[in-house]
Specification:
Layout (H helix, E strand, L loop, with lengths): L2 H12 L4 H17 L5 H20 L4 H5 L3 H11 L4 H23 L7 E2 H24 L6 H24 L5 E2 L3 H21 L9 H14 L14 H32 L1
Antiparallel strand pairs: 1-2
Helix pairs in contact: 1-3, 2-3, 2-5, 2-7, 6-7, 6-9, 6-10, 7-8, 9-10, 10-11
Keywords: Membrane, Transmembrane, Transmembrane helix
């Protein structure tokens, strides 16, 4: 089976777990998947599926996962990770994909104003920073799984918050000479191509719901960027005028409101399923 098929089978089988076993296996799953980031994903998922099947077999015989695997799941999970081989090539591909996705989904808002140059150097530095930040945040999230102390989780959250703020600071305060102006037809064509590629990537995702909140802001940014460059509509979308600023502010506020509604709806629907 392919990795995606194993993950889907794993998710389907988890619905058969009792609440106690679900908690035990859920923590184990999160811990292994996050900390086995550099390991072979196929073998990781195969091993996790094998463990789940063992738990289900034990459950049929009236035994809990804790009774079957022991009361030290962290040590057991560490042993599992040590068994898995490294796969640097796939990891590099995943990091490159993440940076590329960030580039595609972040470039549209920066191209709204045709009079502002696009700083390739700053954007590249921010993309690399975001990639490194995501890996570190993933590691911290995994490590916090078996930490009972709230102080550790609080400090981890604060630290990640500072790192996130650092990424914003890089994007705002760092400037490089590698600037490109995307005005007129070139800008409109670039925005359209990026929007189409982003839409294609979103359509390919298995779990499309988690990406839905991105659509209002990305779509609005694309339309604003194109309309501000078209001769027939650029007068109304001149962001150096009060009218243009008002249209920009109102449109983005509507997009952000729709994003909030989608986030609320996704959170509410997930609670209803539980």
């Amino acid at each position: 089976m392919k990795t995606k098929e194993i993950i889907q089978l794993n998710a389907n089988l988890q619905t058969q777990l009792t609440s106690v076993n679900e908690e035990y296996y859920g923590d184990l799953l999160v811990y292994v998947r996050t900390l086995a980031f550099l390991r072979d994903e196929q073998q990781t998922e195969e091993l996790l599926l094998s463990i789940l099947q063992d738990i289900l077999d034990a459950q049929k015989n009236g035994r809990t996962a804790e009774a079957y695997f022991g009361k030290k799941p962290k040590e057991f999970a560490d042993e599992i990770i040590q068994q898995l081989p490294f796969n640097v090539v796939d990891t590099a591909k995943l990091v490159a994909y993440g940076i590329g996705a960030y580039f595609l989904f972040s470039i549209l808002p920066t191209l709204i104003n045709p009079t502002r140059p696009f700083d390739v150097g700053t954007f590249s530095l921010t993309s690399i920073y975001v990639g490194a930040f995501s890996i570190f945040a993933l590691w911290v999230f995994g490590k916090s799984t078996y930490h009972v102390r709230r102080s550790f989780k609080l400090l981890a959250a604060v630290f990640i918050g500072f790192l996130f703020a650092g990424g914003i600071a890089v994007n705002i305060f760092v400037s490089t000479p590698l600037k490109i102006y995307f005005g007129g037809f070139l800008g409109s064509a670039t925005i359209l191509i990026v929007a189409l590629i982003s839409g294609y990537l979103l359509a390919k995702q298995d779990n499309k719901k988690i990406w839905l909140p991105l659509i209002p802001v990305l779509t609005t940014s694309a339309f604003l960027g194109i309309f501000s460059r078209l001769p027939i509509s650029s007068h109304y979308f001149d962001f150096s005028t009060q009218q243009g600023k008002t249209i920009l502010a109102v449109t983005l506020c509507i997009a952000l409101f729709l994003q909030f509604v989608l986030l609320f709806w996704l959170g509410y629907s997930s609670k209803q399923k539980k």
